[in-house]
Amino acid sequence: MSQPLHLDPILRQANLLCQSQFGKRPDRIHVYSNKQTAAILLHELTDPRDERLPDDPDECYTHIYILLSQFIFPALQKKIEATLGYNVMNVFIDWKLEYNSAVIAMIFEAEPETPHEDLYAGKAELHMKISQITESVQKTPKSVDSFWLSDHILVILRKGQLINLEKQIIKKGFNSALRVSKRELELGRFLEELPVLDLLGRPLKTAYLDWDFEQDFSMLLLVLDKQSSH
Q: Is 113 a domain residue?
């Protein structure tokens, strides 16, 4: 997939930053954006032979999350904002060990006008199922929103789902341990229980999940098979 030329500054800097932090450039980088959000997908991010990577999967995930969130994104943020023309309000990051792929996804500061609601077949049922699964592992979210970022990537936003115990864990500074545990539990449930094929008409390829703990805000990205159109 070729990327529009105006995205070249983001692609060049992302390649250089990944080379610096991971010792290699991703095999492929894709950037998707609209007025609400943007997502940078980094494919074949790490070299499996890199001896700096921890052997334990949870430790490896945390190590890569820290590199992406504390080194790569901060150095990339101004380039993203200048290129796309929007200010970043939230950032969400995930890495998939089994695919060796990562996402850096951003929510932009809201524009004054009311955003257009993205209506699509299966949306109400999907939101209901998202709420049910969330409630089964913590509590019903105060709100669920979703929209298509591209023809095969669906963004799902949840607000207000943290329970008091989780909030206390965050106050104590154990964000990394909470993120690893929540990701394993929640993402596993979503992958097992979301009837994506039935509701959206095509199979789920992969999914990414992260939280803004301070704002009790979460993003779930569903990457679907491209063969059909929604």
A: no
Burial class (CB in 10 A: 0-12, 13-18, 19+), 32: buried
| Per-residue pLDDT tens digits for 192-219 | 999 999 999 999 999 999 999 999 999 9
Query: What's this model's pTM, rounded to 2 decimal places?
Result: 0.93
Tell me whether residue 185 is in a domain: yes
User: Is 146:127 a contact under the CB 8 Å cutoff?
Assistant: yes
Give the pairing type, strands 28-33 and 37-43: antiparallel
108, 133, 154 — which closes off a domain? 108
Write out the residue range of the structural domain in which residue 69 sits: 5-108
Within a domain: 117: no
Instruction: Give the tens place of pLDDT for each residue, 12-45.
Output: 999 999 999 999 999 999 999 999 999 999 999 9
> Residue 189 and residue 52: Cα distance in Å, rounded?
31
Q: Where are the beta strands (DSSP E) in 58-193?
A: 88-96, 101-108, 143-148, 153-159
